[in-house]
Structures are given as C-alpha cells and as structure tokens.
UniProtKB/TrEMBL annotation:
GO molecular function, one term: transmembrane transporter activity
Native source species: Eleusine coracana subsp. coracana
Subcellular location per the Swiss-Prot or TrEMBL entry: Membrane
Family of this protein: Belongs to the major facilitator superfamily. Proton-dependent oligopeptide transporter (POT/PTR) (TC 2.A.17) family.
Keyword set, alphabetical order: Membrane, Transmembrane, Transmembrane helix
Highest taxon listed in the record's lineage: Eukaryota
Pfam families recorded: PTR2
Protein name per its UniProtKB record: Uncharacterized protein
Statement: the UniProt record of this protein carries the keyword Cytoplasm: no
CC annotations in GO: membrane
Length: 74
C-alpha cells in the first residue's frame, strides 16, 4: 500500500531521485528515532517536571499497550 502511494509522489529530493519502494524505510527510521528521543529526552523531562523517580518503564508501557490492543480487537 505504501509503495502505491509513493508511486504518485514526486520522487525527487534535491538532486536525488528516491525509488518508491525505499520510501517505506523512512517510516521505520522515524519510529526508531522517536523511541530513542522519547526514552532519552521526554521521559527524563517528565520525571523532572513531576518530581517522580519511579516509573513503570518502557517495557511495562509496551506490555500494557499490547494488552489493551488485544482486548480491543478480541
């Protein structure tokens, strides 16, 4: 689906022409970058603002999300 959408776009970026099939990697890279930014920047700032030293953590939040997703689509 993403490749079909990418085929309708102008593939030129600056002097480069990006193939439609490789555009999906930008989605993957953005998720990876956001996970790092969230873990290293957002969470410490939130802890500093709320004076909270305990947190359920990234793994716990992921498990909670998975459980809610499973319950939602049962």
């Amino acid at each position: 689906m993403f490749v079909l959408q990418a085929n309708t776009l102008d593939p030129r970026m600056g002097g480069f022409k990006i193939p439609a099939a490789s555009l999906s990697i930008f989605d993957t890279i953005s998720v990876i970058v956001w996970a790092v930014v969230y873990d290293r920047v957002v969470v410490p700032m939130a802890r500093r603002w709320t004076d909270s030293r305990s947190s359920s953590g990234w793994a716990s939040a992921s498990v909670d999300s998975l459980c809610l997703f499973t319950i939602r689509y049962m």
